[in-house]
């Protein structure tokens, strides 16, 4: 073999190894989020440097969610997990154990001072379940079992209880800025080679969040403060209420699966009549049956759908976090403005 051919072969081999190395480095970071709103935030900040997936699907109710075997497999392959925290994902410890996931985790609400629920846990109702209220999932309701990477749980009701802190902080665009900072920081730590990329996208995303926040405050000036009172399916909008001076009156507590008593419903009906509440809203993850009953009793009109705990399907206009917040505002103003 000629010396020139030998060096040429070595060069080709070296270039091949380099290309293989770059190919490995170019693989996107596998990031799993607990539910669809966080998944969208990860996509906005991570761009093409991440492969983002969600456990609770779009239009899925995180309160009634039961992990599937496929969710354990998804989490097991993750390089980074993003959760809301504040006891929102009550089913997550079981899933982590089933998946054997012990990797890094971002708590998106870290640094947020949470609002407290009045009266603590789900003060409107007990935790009995009426499955007519459960949303239709695009998957079976199979529990994750211990064998074959799955784990059973014996206390279904317990998994849907929440603490005394309101976990729905994403309903405030101002607090969403903290979500963005936490997610960006977590991505930078997990993938330092692309830190500047994540920082740049996070800055752009934060700016768009701020612009929408300013726009909502301006638009709501068309609705007198004393008229900003609505009834919602469950207690998910306190942060939005605080940010924009809107009074949200929930039919049930934090868990969308809780059942209000006849007394609870009667009190809400009396309140709605006394304060002349104009609108009552359904949510994308909750049955409209109870909302329609209260609307008939009070004469309040049923507004459009509000998105509380999950995004809508692709192409719906509410398939992104900003689209969801924009749509919720549109529905509220449409129902409340004089």
From TrEMBL:
What Pfam families does its record include? Answer: ZnuA (PF01297)
Instruction: Provide the residue span(s) of the region labelled Disordered.
Output: 116-167
Does the entry feature the keyword Thylakoid, yes or no?
no
Q: In Gene Ontology terms, what is a biological process of this protein?
A: metal ion transport
Q: Which Gene3D superfamilies match?
A: Nitrogenase molybdenum iron protein domain
N-terminal signal peptide: 1-26
State where composition is biased (Basic and acidic residues): 121-158
Grouped into one coarse class, the protein's main location is: other
Which PANTHER family does the annotation name?
Answer: HIGH-AFFINITY ZINC UPTAKE SYSTEM PROTEIN ZNUA-RELATED, METAL-BINDING PROTEIN HI_0362-RELATED
The UniProt entry's sequence similarity note says: Belongs to the bacterial solute-binding protein 9 family.
Output this protein's name: Metal ABC transporter substrate-binding protein
Q: Which organism is it from?
A: Alcaligenes pakistanensis
């Amino acid at each position: 073999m000629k010396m020139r051919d030998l060096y040429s072969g070595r060069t080709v081999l070296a270039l091949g190894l380099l290309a293989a190395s770059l190919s490995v480095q170019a693989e996107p970071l596998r990031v799993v989020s607990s539910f669809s709103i966080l998944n969208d935030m990860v996509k906005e900040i991570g761009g093409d440097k991440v492969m983002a997936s969600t456990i609770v699907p779009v239009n899925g109710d995180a309160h009634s969610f039961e992990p599937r075997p496929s969710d354990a497999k998804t989490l097991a392959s993750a390089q980074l997990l993003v959760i809301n925290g504040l006891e929102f994902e009550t089913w997550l410890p079981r899933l982590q154990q089933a998946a054997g996931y012990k990797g890094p985790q971002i708590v998106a609400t870290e640094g947020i001072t949470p609002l407290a629920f009045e009266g603590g846990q789900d003060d409107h109702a007990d935790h009995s379940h009426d499955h007519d209220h459960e949303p239709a999932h695009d998957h079976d309701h199979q529990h994750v079992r211990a064998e074959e990477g799955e784990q059973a749980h014996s206390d279904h009701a317990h998994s849907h209880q929440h603490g005394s802190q309101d976990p729905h902080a994403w309903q405030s665009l101002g607090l969403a800025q903290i979500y963005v900072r936490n997610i960006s920081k977590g991505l930078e730590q997990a993938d330092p080679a692309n830190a500047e990329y994540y920082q740049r996208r996070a800055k752009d995303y934060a700016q768009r969040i701020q612009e929408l926040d300013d726009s909502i405050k301006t638009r709501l000036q068309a609705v007198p403060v004393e008229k900003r009172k609505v009834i919602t399916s469950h207690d998910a909008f306190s942060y939005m209420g605080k940010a924009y001076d809107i009074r949200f009156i929930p039919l049930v507590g934090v868990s969308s699966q809780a059942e209000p008593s006849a007394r609870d419903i009667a009190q809400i009906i009396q309140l709605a009549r006394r304060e002349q509440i104009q609108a009552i809203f359904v949510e994308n993850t909750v049955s409209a049956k109870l909302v329609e009953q209260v609307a008939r009793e009070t004469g309040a009109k049923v507004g459009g759908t509000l998105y509380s705990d999950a995004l809508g399907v692709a192409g719906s206009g509410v398939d992104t976090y900003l689209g969801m917040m924009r749509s919720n505002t549109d529905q509220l103003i449409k129902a409340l403005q004089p």
